[in-house]
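Structure (tokenized):
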């Protein structure tokens, strides 16, 4: 399950070059082709019903793009046998656009005569002041070209905030031919002006621009120390912490991937929980319905790759405390290894109370503080930055959070235009458009074995009226549960009125106390779904975002809810989830995958500019009737010695033991 090493990337690209030594082409991606779930579970013995596997073939998947034709090749390589085992041409499909292609595109567009002329019309003669964000086109009627739509800005200095100075035109650029093929100028609406002036007022956020004299002076240091070292242990990519054990993976598309998650029960047994967890896709559709902005629908996982966009993290800034880092090894356009140093951060942190109770009779209190393991990476997708955090708690809870920050994507308005109803004016002439961030969290479970099901539970008031013998004072309410049967049935939308929840359960294992299947509850407090209308381009390309839950049978190749090669995907093709559920298949007591949609609908505020404070959304997975009691009950009591706590005042009393009532 380890990501490919630099040597394996070299080996894979060398094998391809020997077979494809003619013409101009680029290596889009070289990544691990993961083995079958059944083989891995059989290898580790996670399910005794599966045959024992002694050896698993290690494979790589190479995606190649011919230039200028744009023909895509999917090539499977056996690293075990050092040979190519499959070579498939993918006509009419486009894979992710890499950072290397984006840099190449920006450089070419800044030298293009059409772009230079449009800048001249706006009064810009120094192209060193122009900065261009290449975006996916969404979908285009122009066939056979690998296009980006470029969103243009001005900088008044090399590290200025360019989103304070948006330009009013978008070049269309063919990545394969390296040519600008068109320029779309945004039309003015309800304005006396044909073209806007470019706002030149600066809106800085970097400390060197703000000035040392304007920074806060009243912050005292907070230090996080672990004098005896960390509580986790690493063996290669395998990590053990408290009673958790898992494998840490990474690829160009999803970035951080976690595999083979197990938990040690109170009796010492190792119980399998989740085979694979990942952020499988996200879509950011914008609300402005006019050209060229109506093609802004970024699929940051499938179109750009969260791994490709990962940051190299900074000790003490991005991660605080006693930190362990892992590098990421990907590939460049020539098929050579490309290393992102310190791409993954691993550390522990205090997480508040785990539990506490005070006996009001004796005054005795018992507290245990919660600690969590954090595995994270941060990506920069153009203007936005996303912190992606997996949290593991001592009570068995898994939490996946996305911290959205960075800079708003902006458009310029004429002096007499209004941003309403599709945006917010965050500065004079600077419009931040309304949009959504919708994420698909892929959960591949193995709750006490390979065969699992998913149940849906609503909490409803009693059907009996007040005064009925079974609801005499009208306070009764109960749960109503159904188990999904097949792919057509297993689709869910959150319902706050009914307190709807879902559980991944193993119906073959019944809890002796609860008399219910053991399971893990899905908690989704951030459940917006896609607002675009059915039939729209983004709706048909992102059907996964129209519901909060889908359940499909496990299939090795079905990892991405919007499809595999989705760049410029035709909305008529309905890739991903629609294909996975097209045929009615059982998802009860099967090897299954659940897809959870969560996110936020972002109506920008002025306070989000010039840089956005983090907006946190996420989901959590909690054991439900799985253990024989609170699995964190054996956490030692907390005291002021262990926490190094001190009083801010001169007073001194005991801590965490006795309370005065």
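Design, position by position:
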């Amino acid at each position: 399950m380890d990501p490919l090493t630099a040597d394996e990337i070299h080996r894979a690209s060398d094998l391809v070059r020997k077979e494809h030594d003619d013409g101009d082409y680029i290596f889009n991606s070289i990544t691990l082709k993961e083995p079958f779930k059944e083989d891995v579970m059989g290898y580790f013995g996670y399910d005794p019903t599966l045959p024992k596997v002694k050896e698993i073939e290690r494979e790589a998947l190479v995606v190649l793009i011919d230039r200028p034709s744009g023909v895509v090749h999917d090539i499977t390589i056996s690293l075990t046998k050092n040979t190519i085992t499959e070579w498939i041409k993918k006509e009419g499909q486009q894979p992710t656009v890499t950072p290397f292609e984006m840099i190449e595109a920006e450089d070419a567009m800044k030298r293009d005569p059409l772009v230079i002329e449009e800048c001249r019309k706006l009064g810009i003669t120094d192209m060193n002041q122009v900065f261009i964000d290449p975006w996916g086109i969404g979908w285009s009627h122009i066939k056979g070209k690998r296009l980006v739509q470029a969103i243009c800005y001005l900088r008044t200095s090399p590290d200025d905030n360019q989103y304070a100075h948006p330009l009013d035109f978008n070049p269309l650029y063919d990545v394969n031919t390296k040519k600008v093929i068109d320029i779309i100028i945004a039309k003015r609406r309800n304005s006396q002006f044909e073209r806007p002036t470019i706002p030149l007022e600066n809106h800085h956020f970097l400390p060197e621009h703000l000035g040392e004299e304007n920074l806060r002076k009243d912050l005292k240091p907070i230090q996080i120390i672990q004098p005896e070292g960390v509580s986790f242990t690493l063996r290669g990519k395998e990590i053990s912490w408290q009673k958790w054990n898992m494998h840490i993976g990474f690829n160009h598309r999803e970035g951080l991937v976690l595999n083979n998650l197990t938990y040690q029960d109170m009796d010492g047994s190792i119980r399998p929980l989740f085979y694979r967890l990942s952020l499988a896709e996200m879509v950011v559709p914008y609300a402005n319905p006019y050209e060229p902005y109506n093609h802004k629908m970024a699929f940051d996982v499938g179109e750009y790759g969260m791994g490709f966009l990962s940051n190299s993290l900074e000790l003490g800034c991005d991660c605080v405390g006693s930190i362990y880092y892992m590098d990421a090894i990907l590939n460049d356009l020539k098929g050579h290894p490309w290393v992102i140093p310190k791409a993954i951060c691993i550390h522990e942190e205090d997480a508040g109370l785990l539990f506490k109770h005070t006996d009001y009779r004796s005054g005795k209190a018992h507290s245990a503080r919660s600690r969590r393991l954090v595995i994270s990476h941060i990506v920069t997708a153009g203007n936005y930055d996303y912190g992606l955090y997996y949290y593991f708690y001592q009570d068995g809870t898994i939490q996946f959070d996305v911290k959205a920050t960075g800079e708003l994507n902006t458009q310029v308005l004429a002096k007499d235009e209004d941003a309403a109803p599709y945006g917010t004016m965050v500065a004079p002439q600077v419009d931040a458009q309304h949009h959504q961030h919708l994420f698909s969290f892929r959960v591949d479970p193995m709750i006490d074995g390979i065969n699992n099901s998913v149940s849906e539970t609503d909490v409803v008031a009693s059907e009996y009226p007040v005064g009925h013998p079974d609801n005499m004072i009208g306070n009764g309410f109960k749960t109503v549960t159904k188990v999904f049967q097949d792919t057509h049935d297993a689709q869910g939308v959150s319902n706050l009125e009914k307190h709807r929840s879902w559980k991944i359960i193993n119906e073959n294992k019944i809890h002796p106390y609860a008399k219910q299947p053991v399971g893990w509850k899905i908690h989704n407090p951030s459940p917006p779904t896609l607002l675009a209308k059915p039939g729209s381009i983004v709706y048909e390309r992102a059907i996964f975002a129209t519901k909060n839950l889908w359940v499909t049978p496990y299939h090795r190749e079905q990892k991405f809810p919007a499809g595999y090669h989705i760049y410029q995907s035709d909305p008529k093709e309905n890739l991903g989830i629609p294909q996975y559920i097209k045929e009615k298949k059982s998802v009860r007591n099967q090897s299954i995958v659940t897809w959870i949609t969560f996110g936020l609908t972002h109506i920008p505020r002025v306070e989000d500019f010039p840089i956005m404070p983090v907006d946190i959304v996420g989901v959590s997975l909690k054991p439900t009737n799985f253990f024989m009691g609170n699995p964190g009950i054996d956490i030692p009591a907390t005291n002021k010695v262990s926490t190094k706590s001190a009083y801010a005042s001169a007073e001194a009393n005991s801590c965490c033991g006795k309370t005065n009532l």
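Reviewer-requested clarification: The two ends are 55 Å apart (CA to CA). The domain at 99-209 is CATH 3.10.450.40 (Nuclear Transport Factor 2; Chain: A,).
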